[in-house]
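just leaving the lab so this will be short. below you get a single protein, a line of residues and a line of whole numbers that encode the local backbone shape. id like you to explain what the token line says about the fold, in plain words if possible. thanks a lot i owe you, the record is right below:

…
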Amino acid sequence: MRRGRFEQAEGGTLFLDEIGDMPLELQTRLLRVLSDGHYYRVGGHSAIKSHVRVIAATHQNLEQRVAQGQFREDLFHRLNVIRLRLPALRERREDIAPLTRHFLQRSAQELGVESKRIAPAALQVLEQCPFPGNVRQLENLCHWLTVMAPAQTIQVKDLPDDLRSATTVDEASSAVSSTPLAMPAGTAPPSETSVQAGAMPSLAPGTAASDWEAGVEQAALALLRSGEGDVMHHLTQRFERAVIGAALAQTHGRRIEAAQRLGIGRNTITRKIQELGMED
């Protein structure tokens, strides 16, 4: 006789995904098991005691489903014992980078190929995406990239058109420019040592935003006229290094506080410090 899910999970955990989409008829059966702890095999007449822990998940608003008569209220209260909310991926963008690398490695293992890497510029595009399909959308994207990306390093041009059109990030290599970023008059250019020590000076308090923007524009024009490649990436790297260095200087090297002041996650600032070579 075929064993049902509760019997298969005896002594363990039964995970019910998308419980909010369960038909009302099945909701009634599940409620009966959760209420008295017994179930019947299909076609059976003897009650079987269940020793199973039930974990349910859903993307639905169950309170709203209850109000609409699409989910049983008594079942909702039976399930709503310990409630955990997993934030959407767009609410924890600092997780996108490690998840992307993990999914690329897993896809490569499943397909029996070498794991692909993702360029910083392409990763920046992903970090700006809303991901309405959450982690599953990112997982499917990584699987698609493992199959479709022509080179071992995934560039911005390899990403699907709908992702690229949703952002304004241009493709660039991972090389770091040695060309200094032009700074407004009266502001000393930061040295590499001061950056690593977290002592990057900020712009002078009285500096107008237009002056700072003009300095960046001059640096960009100088790089473009010199024929330097990857200008966007080079300037972005130096900008991030300066801003993070300034935040660390203001917070005396306290990364969590610096991340809060910058409005980014602590995982993001840790990753940026590593990528920009700012480790002590």
Q: What stands out?
A: The first strand starts at residue 13 and ends at 16.
